[in-house]
């Protein structure tokens, strides 16, 4: 594995937590990596693969993490103008019984399709071809009306894989290789396993004995869970979700993918889904990534986008419980080596932007407008609850809201006759330099 770039005490604490998880979980092998600011800062492994410790080149099957690669292909096609997320599937894949659902609904698991195809447990059986899969898609494949609720569907991602294959004129996995893996240098990820890969095992529930699990080609269901990968490649994928897209996607598109589009029912959502990535809330942080499982394997890629950190895990056991381990590893890194904040002045702020900063009033309510790092503005109420947002230049002389009530709304600067900023119009909300200017106060 890659040499550590964390301190020895941090590395020992991370390895101790990993060793506990491997031992208590009775995992034949368990490998992990921690990512910070786009770089892998620690890797570790416990257990054996064919009698030796896992290495950087050891492949594990990553199951549903495969879906995130398919989702990136869909979003690249959207950005290139080849489809719209509101397009019905029928427009690009004609002749299916579910052609009315939209591409965006399939991406976010809100199309209402059932989770699994008919027949044998597909993950432990040889896959069917696309024609056979499409023939299964009758009205009974709907669990809910489209758009009603989140309902995870492997069928939906099988359809998306077929879609991107049709658009690209090649197999979906060939498109993944050409458009994602090669540009990001992820040479350890492949459709079928390579020599030296970890073998998948089921661990007996009441004895320390193993049963080999099958590793079939999933055929038409492959876009839902086929790929094999290594810990270094998964670490690169975690860095991708943390913001280092390597030019494969724009930052805006990645942010769009990581916005909640559907959540599991409950009094407080903890697990949800964006346009491809799974989302989770833990200890006040929002994570983006995906978990994966296939017979004999479990894997995890989670990124904390706000903190630019990530954790990846891979094990070769069917019943390997990894829940919470990524949070523990992330917490160990934060405790032993907290991120160091930095600040530096910006010597190139145009005077016309400085003239916009300061106090503005919406009616009688004071707000501050502050020029922040990265050329964005921060609008915030002062001392009271209210609506604030970050804004960025829209390229046409205005500003676009990035969050909250004003997300997507445009801020326009209105000027007095002498050219000085007089009002801010944010989606018809008028902000002035004085509360209710020109009106008499009793």
From TrEMBL:
Superkingdom, taxonomy of origin: Bacteria
Domain DUF7586, chain residue ranges per copy: 349-433
UniProt xrefs under Gene3D superfamilies: DD-peptidase/beta-lactamase superfamily (3.40.710.10)
One Pfam entry name: Beta-lactamase
Beta-lactamase-related domain location: 17-324
InterPro entries (alphabetical): AmpC-like, Beta-lactam-related, Beta-lactam/transpept-like, DUF7586
Protein's UniProt name: CubicO group peptidase (Beta-lactamase class C family)
């Amino acid at each position: 594995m890659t040499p550590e770039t964390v301190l020895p005490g941090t590395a020992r604490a991370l390895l101790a937590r990993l060793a506990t998880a491997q031992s208590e979980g009775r995992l034949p092998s368990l490998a992990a990596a921690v990512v910070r600011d786009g770089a892998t800062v620690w890797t570790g492994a416990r257990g054996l693969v064919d009698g030796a410790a896992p290495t950087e080149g050891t492949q594990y099957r990553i199951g549903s993490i495969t879906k995130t690669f398919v989702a990136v292909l869909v979003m690249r096609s959207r950005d290139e103008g080849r489809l719209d997320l509101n397009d019905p599937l029928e427009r690009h894949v004609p002749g299916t019984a579910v052609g009315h659902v939209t591409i965006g609904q399939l991406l976010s698991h809100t199309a209402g399709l059932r989770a699994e195809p008919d027949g044998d447990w597909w993950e432990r059986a040889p896959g069917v071809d696309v024609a056979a899969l499409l023939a299964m898609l009758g009205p009974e494949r709907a669990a809910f009306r489209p758009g009603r609720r989140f309902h995870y569907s492997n069928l939906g991602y099988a359809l998306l894989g077929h879609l991107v294959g049709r658009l690209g004129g090649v197999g979906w996995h060939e498109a993944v290789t050409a458009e994602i893996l090669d540009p990001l240098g992820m040479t350890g990820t492949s459709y079928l396993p390579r020599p030296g890969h970890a073998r998948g095992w089921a661990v007996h529930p009441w004895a320390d004995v193993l049963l080999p699990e099958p590793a079939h080609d999933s055929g038409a269901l492959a876009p839902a869970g086929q790929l094999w990968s290594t810990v270094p490649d998964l670490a690169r994928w975690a860095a991708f979700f943390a913001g280092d897209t390597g030019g494969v996607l724009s930052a805006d598109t990645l942010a769009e993918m990581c916005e909640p589009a559907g959540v599991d029912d409950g009094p407080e959502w903890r697990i949800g889904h964006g346009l491809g990535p799974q989302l989770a809330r833990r200890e006040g942080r929002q994570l983006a990534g995906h978990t994966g499982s296939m017979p004999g394997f479990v894997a995890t890629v989670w990124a904390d986008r706000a903190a630019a950190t990530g954790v990846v895990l891979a094990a070769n056991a069917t019943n390997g419980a990894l829940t919470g381990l990524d949070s523990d590893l992330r917490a160990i890194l934060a405790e032993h080596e907290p991120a160091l904040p930095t600040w530096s002045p910006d010597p190139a702020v145009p005077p016309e932007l400085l003239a916009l900063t300061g106090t503005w009033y919406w009616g009688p309510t004071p707000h501050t407008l502050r020029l922040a790092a990265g050329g964005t503005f921060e609008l915030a109420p002062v001392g009271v609850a209210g609506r604030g947002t970050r804004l960025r230049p829209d390229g046409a002389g205005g500003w676009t809201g990035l969050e909250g009530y004003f997300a997507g709304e445009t801020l326009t600067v209105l000027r007095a006759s002498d050219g000085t900023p007089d009002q801010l119009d944010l989606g018809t909300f008028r902000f002035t330099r004085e509360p209710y200017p020109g009106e008499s106060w009793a």
